[in-house]
Design goal:
The protein starts with a helix and ends in an 11-residue tail after the last helix. Helices cover about 65% and strands about 0% of the residues. The protein is mostly helical. The longest helix has 17 residues. It has 30 helices and two strands. Strand 1 and strand 2 form a beta hairpin.
Length: about 525
């Protein structure tokens, strides 16, 4: 369908159509008849704005008044009202108003037809959108890139990505240049099918695209999808293609993806080599390029080189951003060098860079890691005066308190979360459950497990395995097997540690009858492939 439409576009039909054009589709009670209008290029210079309306009723009242004016306003003015209604996302209303314009003799123009295509595509009725496109061509108008973007969005929304990809190159041949919106829409559509599905088709399109503009958002989306999907080799190859061949630099979004993705040392060395190569090629490397290099060196564990990069940035008159400072602090804390992290923090504040919750979380975690819970709590109190702690902050503090044998203080923080406007997440529960299991407080563990489901925060695979480990280790065999049965019912599998306990138990001839029967029943279930662990 798209290929046929593109062929029609390529012919640039500029002949005036016959005046006998009739209805071109019917849907339910709607009957759209688009009378012809003289071919004009005025739509190319006109850009339909929108009028501001507080409510949909205000817009409809204005529309109805315009219909009854003598003489009626121009189609351009109707287009402004329709545009305002689409901005309110009332696409069905727009479609219902079009036949009213027709019945009052208000001829459509290119803008109103484009609005119809946009509305149909948002409602996932892209076939009707193509019918409007056919009418645009019959009326002698030349569709623009916005027209094509609406249709691409509609096809993506209906999952017809293959049709878009097969016809994508046709745009350039018929005089169309995909813009940043086109690339971004296509990237999002492909990404919904999964990171692995998205990259290869899109890379092929980009490589064939010559000098076409490629949105940095789309670029970052691809890198993010590969990075978070741990396809590091593909991510690095694509990063090299974009940076070295097409001259596109990584963005802050790319940096964030890299920060939160676990990589081994060899992979981070490859990142550092690639970005170093970029720095050498670019006359003036930008802040983001340097930031990625800081991330790479910090993740690699080479904090000295990371610090040297920051020093070089400052020497060149660049101000490192908050992300760069946070990554550098995290690098120091990973090496348990909290004093180095504090110096970076103080320098950052001195330079006028305001720390955020991530900055404080890094330092608090650093203190907890070296078991300086008093200093962590002091910094936590200071943080509360500056920014609002998030659930990650509380998770770190609760974990630190549990490690420091301060269970009561950890319980108090946990119970006060709701007063702070926060909800505990799975990690919060796991931290507390792990400490309670270490103390064999299984009744309280069971209470928290029930509470998790009640709060809409269902326990995950790791949560179950933590509890089952503790129960089996402390000879609570029947309770452990009951929980194992519940875990299997939720579709989870055991980890390697649980498997070791169960193998040992299976070889135990001293099990009572009820426990043996439960174990035998569990052995018939196909949930015995262990995963690596929490």
């Amino acid at each position: 369908m798209l290929r046929m439409s593109m062929k029609m576009m390529g012919k640039r039909m500029l002949t005036r159509p016959s005046s006998s054009s009739g209805p071109f589709f019917r849907s339910g009670t709607w009957n759209y008849t688009l009378p012809p209008q003289p071919c004009s290029s005025s739509h190319q210079s006109f850009r339909s704005g929108s009028l501001h309306f507080n409510t949909l009723d205000d817009a409809l009242s204005r529309f109805n008044r315009m219909l009854r004016m003598h003489p009626p306003p121009s189609t351009d003015e109707f287009a402004q009202v329709l545009t305002s209604i689409t901005e309110m996302k009332h696409y069905s209303t727009v479609l219902s108003l079009s036949p009213q314009m027709d019945s009052f003799g208000i001829p459509p123009n290119f803008e109103t037809l484009n609005i119809l295509i946009n509305s149909f595509c948002h409602l996932k009725r892209v076939n009707f959108g193509f019918s409007v496109l056919a009418k645009i061509l019959k009326l002698g108008h030349q569709p623009n890139t916005a027209t094509f973007n609406h249709l691409v969005r509609g096809l993506c929304a209906e999952g017809k990505i293959g049709e878009v990809i097969r016809s994508f190159d046709k745009m350039g041949w018929d005089g169309f240049q995909p813009d940043e919106v086109t690339y971004e829409t296509l990237t999002e559509g492909l990404y919904e099918k999964g990171p692995s599905c998205a990259v290869l088709p899109l890379c092929r399109i980009i490589q064939k695209g010559g000098n076409r503009r490629f949105n940095l958002v789309a670029f970052s989306t691809i890198i993010d999808s590969l990075w978070t999907d741990t396809q590091l080799t593909k991510a690095l190859n694509f990063l090299r293609e974009m940076i070295i061949t097409k001259g596109i630099s990584p963005t802050i979004t790319t940096s964030h993806s890299m920060i939160h993705t676990p990589c081994n040392s060899c992979e981070w060395k490859r990142v550092a080599m690639l970005v170093n190569e970029t720095v050498q090629r670019k006359p003036v490397p930008d802040v983001v390029t340097y930031s990625v290099l800081v991330i790479a060196f910090s993740k690699e564990g080479d904090i000295t080189k990371a610090h040297e990069v920051v020093d070089k940035m400052i020497q060149r008159g660049m101000e490192p951003d908050l992300v760069t400072y946070n990554v550098l602090m995290d690098g120091y804390c990973a090496r348990s060098e909290i004093d180095g992290a504090l110096k970076v923090f103080d320098f950052m504040v001195h330079k006028g860079c305001v720390p955020d919750e991530c900055s404080y979380n890094i330092l608090i975690n650093g203190y907890c890691k070296i078991q300086c819970i008093d200093k962590a709590m002091h910094l936590f109190e200071e943080m509360c005066q500056q920014v609002n702690p998030n659930i990650m902050t509380y998770n770190t503090i609760i974990h630190g308190l549990c490690r420091d044998d301060e269970l009561e203080a950890a319980r108090d923080l946990f119970s006060n979360l709701s007063y702070k406007g926060l909800q505990p997440n799975v990690q919060t529960y796991k931290i507390l459950i792990q400490d309670l299991c270490n103390r064999c407080l299984f009744d309280e563990v069971n209470k928290l497990l029930t509470e998790m489901d009640g709060n809409g925060c269902s326990p995950d695979q790791c949560t179950y395995n933590i509890i089952i480990h503790a129960l089996l280790q402390n000879n609570e065999t029947f309770r452990g097997l009951q929980l194992l049965e519940e875990m299997f019912a939720r579709g989870f599998t055991i980890d390697s540690t649980t498997m070791k306990f169960l193998v040992k138990m299976f070889c135990d001839d001293g099990l009572d009858l009820s426990t043996r029967q439960l174990l035998d029943r569990l052995l018939t279930l196909k949930r015995w492939i262990p995963f690596k662990g929490c």
